Amino acid sequence: IFFIGRMSVSMIFMLKNIVTKSKRSFFTSINTLTKLELSKRNILVDERVSIRVLDVDLSHLIIRTKLINEEQRLFYESVNQFKVGDSQILDLDESVPSKGYSIPDSMGIFWSMKKIEDKGGYDFLMPSDVTKPLNFDITVEDFGGKVLCSESISRHYMSSGVKRIKLNHGRTRGTLFIPASQPGDKFPAIINLYGGIHNKNVIEEDSSMLASRGIVTLSLGYFGVDDLPRSYKTLEAEYFEEAIDYLLTRDDVMKHKGIGLLGLSKGGDIVQTLACLRPDVIGAICIQNGACVSILTSLTKNGVSMGELAQLNYDNVKLRSDDSMDISKVVLVPHLDSKLNIPIENFPGNVLWIAGEDDKNFLSVDFAKNAETRAKESGKNNFELVVYPGMGHFVRLPFTPLTKYTAHPLLPKGVLVYYGGEPNLQAKGQENAWLKKIQFFKKSLV
């Protein structure tokens, strides 16, 4: 009986070893040929890359994507877990992580990145120098942390041949981007107005990429940069008109349909006012999560205000459980017949209005629908409203990580504002909105 018992135990262990070896390991790669395959290693930031892991001897693995850029103070990382099928190939275009983002998208390893908090740095994954690419390291690991293979990819904010010109022309301050060109080439042109600044400079990432896609783009400063006022308490229409007139003097700009204006947040109400002021030279405007009223300050012309200010109710500020502030209901949405509304229905040019349903800076969708209703009632048929589910306040370049929390340019230092956004829906919305903006301006101005 003892002998048979010993034999049974031995057989059990032998069978267990056979079964274990027949399965792919959960932690350790037996096959040293596991390979990470990228379709491209140098791309523009709005371009997709296909990513596959080949010859995988694991049932599960981790893909870690990291950006460490000391010079530009950018420290970001994503960690996503995947289950590998019997084919021993993991195709990120078709696979949804078992832990991480929740849609099949090879670019998810980039847009799901989060700031590495103990490193400090900026709350936005945004370059301070668009002339230099950002380099990302991608590693494939087992669940024990062993690196099986790795690759690097460079993502560029300017295509070859694009010119970047720091502008100090008269009173105009900003950065001008010119598409790659041959002598005599002409391009549609726009002015890009953000509601904030980055590292004491105008935000350039959108403008450099718009130029990479064939549109002359001026990132125009109007506060907080160079010798401009630190905040936008006073905004003179003449300052913006000077920038418009400058673009129209350039030989590389198409002029017969005018120029375009692109405005995010506070920039959104500024471009509406300018469009109503200069319809003779402005052919199209795009508002991104803007209001249909002037917030905090309106433009002045010859020292006289061009409109009344939005009504504010600070009692509507909500302190969230994470100690951030929800200010979405501070700026009140006016009635359709209110004299506070900027009369965008009187602007003859094309209008594209982009609104995020989860914008927590203010009620972007309500403002947009107010403007859309007035446009329809006046017979304006070249007004397009696109509402994106799950999109927060910031409308960024495709595949850029969502920033839900950060400071506000007009609030005291240390006050954290919640701006909203659901990562998976934000990613879809940003990619679609980017293509729509390029098509809109080219169709309107060419």
Automatic annotation (TrEMBL):
UniProt lists the gene as ACOT1
Q: Which residues form the BAAT/Acyl-CoA thioester hydrolase C-terminal domain?
A: 237-445
Cite the Acyl-CoA thioester hydrolase/bile acid-CoA amino acid N-acetyltransferase domain residue spans from the record.
46-168
* Gene3D superfamilies membership: Acyl-CoA thioester hydrolase/BAAT N-terminal domain, alpha/beta hydrolase
Tell me, what's a Pfam family for it?
A: BAAT_C
- Which organism does this sequence originate in? Lepeophtheirus salmonis
Q: What is this protein called?
A: AcylCoA thioesterase 1 [Pelodiscus sinensis]
GO molecular-function terms, A-Z: fatty acyl-CoA hydrolase activity
The active-site annotation reads 265 (charge relay system), 359 (charge relay system), 393 (charge relay system)
Which GO biological-process labels does this protein carry?
A: acyl-CoA metabolic process; fatty acid metabolic process
The UniProt similarity line reads: Belongs to the C/M/P thioester hydrolase family.
InterPro entries with a match to the protein in the record = AB_hydrolase_fold (IPR029058), Acyl-CoA_thioEstase_long-chain (IPR016662), BAAT_C (IPR014940), Thio_Ohase/aa_AcTrfase (IPR006862), Thio_Ohase/BAAT_N (IPR042490)
